[in-house]
Input
Amino acid sequence: MSTNRNIADYYNQTLNHYQNWWKLDNNLAVHYGIWDESTSNFQEALANTNRLLMETANIKESEHILDAGCGVGGSAFYLAQQKKVIVEGITLSEKQHNYATKKCKELNLENQVNFSIQDYTNTNFKDSSFDVIWAIESITSAPNKIKFINEAHRLLKTGGRIIIADYFKSKEHQNDPKKLLEKWRILWSMAPFDTIESYSKAFEENGFKLTVHKDVTKQITPTAKRMYWSFLLGGPLALIYNSFNKPSPFARNHYKSGLYQYKALRKKLWNYNVLLFEKVDSDKKGN
Output
């Protein structure tokens, strides 16, 4: 099971991989890009993910947003620039935090965006601090989803929203003899995958209602394919590098994730969904 230290170590040890393959310095994103008919390049696809979540959550100017698992800050910067909101970004990774803080100064967004190293299941923010909690591909790392849900319920104002984009197991019991999902999740230090049904049930039994559900698996498939090509092209280089050096544990086999996630997607073992939950009144919690 992944620990906070494991998760932090994964992102600390692979940041340079994302800089090379995800063009991190330009795109400021480590998530999957969403493609549509008008998308002409990968940078646009990455921006589409932020735009879709912003529009789905109906984010308004001056709202207070918690970016739970903020990465290098790209979503926080996007929201601050598009909607003039106030964003608190939290991450477990020291390197991501330092990267995001430096970029925030470069973009002159320090009055709107702040970053800290925190666990999104146990933060130091006051009750009812936020209008929206934003989580792109981050809650999948939480071994105990209920702890996140309870903390989110505490942090959100009544009527507040959680907007999530994440990976989900297609079926509770499915045939995966090569353990593709398990190999992928270990490489990325993720918790075991949930189905949409079990995931949503946990939220709805603990103070939230699901208001929007969008399956965008087809739209992220070109990104999954891009990762597969990074495996094909980068794999031989990684093997040569590993034979002459001693890379960190996560960095050593990181390139294989491009293979596992794509093969698992082709076998329809997982899907990618956008979910919007709304906090209900406290006396309705658990109903």
User: Anything to note?
Assistant: The chain has one domain: 4-280.
